[in-house]
């Protein structure tokens, strides 16, 4: 496994469930693996700490980038995992994109900033910080000065993101935010592509979409070969990738207490189980 793939498992950025305990997703569906790409910032604890810092400071939008960047830079300089991942991203960019054509680097609230800030700094490109409400700020590459800019006059933007699934954040926020500035989002680079159609959606919009790694069967076969996951976990992942809804429907039928146990669990899990039931997401009422 290359560095990034190893780190995804080492930091629990990709976590595979035990055979009888799939994860509950926000949608109310279930699956055998969970992805928290931002854990390759160094660890789950490091990532949680940075998210907390962002949440505590993002109310003062103009001041936040200058406060946030030194933490990210220090992590890059002192944490081998994060340093290696960022260096892989930089190498990929230089091998696949003409860096001279990039006018701005952008990143969206919140996890994109884990990666976009330091890449903008190292490539010496101004950074566009995009918030979920479509507010945008432009910082110089040292993040010493941050301003509200109304237009970037057709300049070309590379958006850095942690994870792409169906590209809903791009469609809802990141692309419109750049368009509102009169810019052009030309390229996108994600750390992990969940292979659920997001990259294709961006390509259809004329955006060159790249990823460092993809969530496919080969990734998990390699993890199995390295002893990171066992045969039962690999089989569950294989069935899920082949038929996500069908495999999880079969699991729920074979484990009738799973949803009931979830409903009696913590508030978040119970809420997701209720979504599953109320929406009959796996057509269980047929049984």
Short characterization:
This protein is an alpha/beta fold and 287 residues long. It has helices at 3-10, 44-57, 64-78, 80-96, 113-123, 168-180, 198-204, 217-225, 231-242, 244-254, 257-263, 267-278, and strands at 14-16, 23-24, 30-31, 33-35, 104-108, 127-130, 136-139, 146-147, 156-164, 184-193, 208-214. The chain folds into two domains: 3-35 and 218-286, no CATH class; 47-215, Rossmann fold (3-Layer(aba) Sandwich), CATH 3.40.50.
Overview of this structure, please?
By secondary structure, the chain is an alpha/beta fold. The protein has two domains: 3-35 and 218-286, no CATH class; 47-215, Rossmann fold (3-Layer(aba) Sandwich). Helix content is 47%, strand content 18%. It contains twelve helices and eleven strands. The protein has helices spanning 3-10, 44-57, 64-78, 80-96, 113-123, 168-180, 198-204, 217-225, 231-242, 244-254, 257-263, 267-278, and strands at residues 14-16, 23-24, 30-31, 33-35, 104-108, 127-130, 136-139, 146-147, 156-164, 184-193, 208-214. A seven-stranded mixed beta sheet has the order 8-7-6-5-9-10-11, with helices on both faces. Strands 1-4 form a two-stranded antiparallel ribbon. A two-stranded antiparallel ribbon has the order 2-3. β10 (184-193), α7 (198-204) and β11 (208-214) form a beta-alpha-beta unit. It is globular and about 55 Å long. 38% of the residues are buried. The model has no long low-confidence stretch (mean pLDDT 95).
């Amino acid at each position: 496994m290359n560095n990034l793939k190893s780190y995804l498992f080492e930091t629990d950025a990709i976590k595979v469930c035990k055979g009888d305990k799939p994860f509950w997703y926000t949608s109310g569906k279930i699956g055998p693996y969970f992805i928290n790409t931002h854990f390759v910032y160094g660890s789950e604890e490091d990532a949680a700490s940075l998210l907390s810092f962002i949440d505590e400071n993002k109310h003062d939008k103009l001041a936040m980038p200058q406060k946030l960047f030194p933490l990210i830079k220090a992590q890059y300089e002192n944490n081998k995992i994060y340093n290696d991942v960022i260096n892989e991203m930089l190498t990929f960019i230089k091998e696949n994109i003409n860096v001279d054509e990039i006018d701005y680097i952008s990143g969206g609230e919140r996890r994109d900033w884990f990666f976009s800030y330091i890449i903008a700094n190292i490539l010496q490109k101004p950074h566009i910080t995009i918030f979920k409400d479509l507010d945008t700020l432009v910082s110089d590459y040292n993040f010493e000065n941050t301003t509200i800019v109304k237009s970037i006059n057709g300049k070309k933007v590379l958006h850095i993101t942690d994870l792409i699934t169906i590209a809903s954040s791009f469609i809802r926020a990141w692309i419109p935010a750049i368009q509102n500035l009169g810019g052009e989002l030309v390229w996108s680079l994600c750390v992990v592509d969940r292979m659920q159609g997001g990259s294709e959606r961006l390509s259809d919009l004329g955006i060159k979409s790249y990823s460092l790694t993809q969530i496919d069967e080969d990734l998990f076969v390699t993890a199995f070969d390295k002893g990171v996951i066992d045969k039962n976990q690999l089989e569950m992942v294989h069935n899920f990738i082949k038929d996500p809804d069908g495999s999880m429907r079969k699991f729920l039928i074979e484990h009738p207490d799973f949803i009931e146990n979830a409903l009696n669990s913590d508030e978040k899990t119970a809420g997701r189980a209720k979504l599953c039931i109320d929406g009959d997401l796996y057509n269980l009422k047929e049984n």
